[in-house]
Write the structure tokens for this entry.
Amino acid sequence: MDTAQELNRQFGIGGRLDFSEDAGGLLVAQIGNEQATATLCLQGAHLMAWQPKSQAVPVVWLSNDAKLLPGKSIRGGAPVCWPWFGAHASESAFPAHGYARTVPWRMLESGSEPGGATRLTLRLAESDQTRALWPHDARLDLTVIAGETLRMELVTENFGAADFAITEALHTYFRIGDIGAARITGLSGCDYWDKVGGSTLARQDGTIRFAGETDRVYVNTTAECAIEDDLLKRRIRIAKSGSRSTVVWTPWTEKAKRMGDLGQPDGWREMVCVESANALENAVNVAAGARHTLVVEYRAEPL
Ligand code: BG6
């Protein structure tokens, strides 16, 4: 097991990338450069915060009830859902959204980009526990580049002799002023599976606005989308590649109450998830010896 001291020796970039141990024993990377601040927990390679210097309010939302506990997912940030998204197809006891978000990852590389952004690459640490859940010869790396824009690259490599299929998502929680004053553009005309109260197929007509629990998997879309926020007066642009699904989720009052970790008072109103994914019919077959890469890039601009 790495220690913060060892990580700082190998990967630290004095003042720009520093590692520490949280009170619960989890390792955390703190990024600070001319362009942005960001925080990432090594368990789950879970980005917890990102705030470009141009923004008075963070762009990535973290619940004020978020807990950093070994083996538990952190509420908010950008959970990595892999190698399955949502419930497991056949094993109801297996964890929702896969196991990548709740197991340790290890640092592979760090550096500074020419413009000053900070880069780090992590690799999921396989174990008997992960192989029991998913027995395939796979390697999963995440590269995060935090600057005025945030770029994340999730690379699945199949180093075995047999193909395998995955579903996945970068399940990012974005900070907004209020869910009632936010809308999402870029998905008009797309088909989506509506997961509220069952699973029905519908087609998006125009901009998405929120007036209740919303849990939708938009399929067969590679489109860039944007969150327009009248209260914080900004637009968050969400560009992606290697992703054919986009998930839009807000729990609303009752589900938020049941979940119990979305922060008080009404923390859920200040976030919306827009997840760049490959889900349902957009599952990805990764051939033996091949790689698949999902990339997202976020930036905030005045509205
Ligand atoms: C979303 C799903 O992606 O994640 C929702 O569409 C789910 O159905 C949400 O409630 C949060 O999931 P979890 O496992 O982090 O509580």
